[in-house]
Specification:
It is globular and about 60 Å long. It starts with 17 loop residues before the first helix and ends with a strand. The chain is α/β, with parallel strands linked by helices. Bound molecules: S-adenosylmethionine.
């Protein structure tokens, strides 16, 4: 059955305010394979130093690996520097940003410079297609999801965020309330992603303590790390925070760390084994 037959009925498109948020005119980079696309990829602007901060966490990797089941060939869409690419399967990566491609580790999977919305592969080319912490960056998530379903035979695996639990996280609640609005603006609601994928289910992925992947809410147990500009550089939400709010929130956080107030309020988090900050794994079984 050609992949395109599996697309669900036409619905309202998932709103992506992303292009407006980043002042984007085009859709990605210039494809090595596939059609050239207009404009520069966002991560060519914001991806500097990504691979130093955003290392794959083995506990999250194990969840992704389990979700992939027994498939042999995998397309990793929005692959970035190659985090979470399984080493024991036949992986092909798709990534629009040249800067991200340049950070791929030696020995990582072959990469095609293209976007999710226009995958340069025939129907049913791979057993599985996966997209890890990337769907919220796509200019047209509907098109990208339909493309994943088209090129995969067995399943689609997506790791994304439900922004709601973030409202309770100290980082957002006490220092950067605007971050919630930014996340809600960027992230397609999980239920909308589920509605667009055949036989889809979701699982919560609690973020382990001392998570090795330094995305902003993964640092729930290490507040000091947010004070490091190199760490902030590697998470896109900081690039959308107005500079004045960043300055104000960081100086309040620094003062609370110095005075011990942060630990008085949140110190129990430093030894908690894991916390649900809204990370969700979606598995769509195409059958
Ligand atoms: C937060 S990074 C995640 C990278 C990697 N999956 C990881 O887990 O480290 C988001 C990635 O999505 C890529 N991206 C942005 N727009 C895209 C699109 N339209 N199609 C595919 N990938 C896209 C970015 O270039 C960036 O590498």
């Amino acid at each position: 059955m050609p992949g395109s037959d599996r697309r669900g009925p036409t619905r309202r498109r998932i709103g992506s305010r992303y292009r407006a948020l980043f002042g984007l005119g085009g859709r990605g980079g210039v494809g090595l394979v596939g059609k050239p696309v207009v404009g520069k990829a966002v991560y060519d602007r914001i991806g500097r130093g990504y691979s130093e901060v955003r290392r794959p966490d083995p506990r999250i990797a194990a969840r992704i690996d389990r979700a992939l089941g027994s498939v042999s060939s995998v397309l990793n869409v929005g692959a970035g520097a190659g985090s979470y690419e399984p080493s024991d399967r036949d992986v092909t990566a798709v990534e629009p940003s040249q800067l991200m491609i340049s950070q791929r580790r030696e020995g990582s999977a072959p990469v095609v410079q293209a976007t999710a919305e226009d995958l340069p592969f025939d129907d049913d080319t791979f057993d599985a297609a996966m997209a890890i912490i990337t769907v919220h960056h796509w200019a047209d998530p509907d098109a990208g999801l339909a493309e994943m379903v088209r090129v995969a035979r067995d399943r689609v695996v997506i790791l994304s965020f439900d922004p709601e639990p973030l409202a309770q996280l100290w980082l957002v609640r006490d220092y950067f309330p605007r971050a919630l609005e930014i996340h809600v603006g960027m992230m397609a609601p999980i239920k909308e992603l589920l509605a667009r994928l055949p036989n889809a289910r979701q699982e919560s992925v609690a973020i382990p303590r001392l998570c090795q992947d330094g995305f902003s809410c993964a640092l729930w147990d290490r507040p000091e790390m947010h004070l490091d500009p190199h760490v902030r550089q590697a998470s896109s939400s900081w690039h959308l925070m107005p500079a004045e709010l960043t300055k104000r929130g960081l100086s309040a956080l620094r003062a609370d760390l110095d005075s011990g107030r942060w630990d008085e309020r949140n110190g129990d988090l430093r030894s908690l084994p894991e916390l649900d900050v809204g990370l969700r794994l979606i598995v769509s079984e195409l059958g």
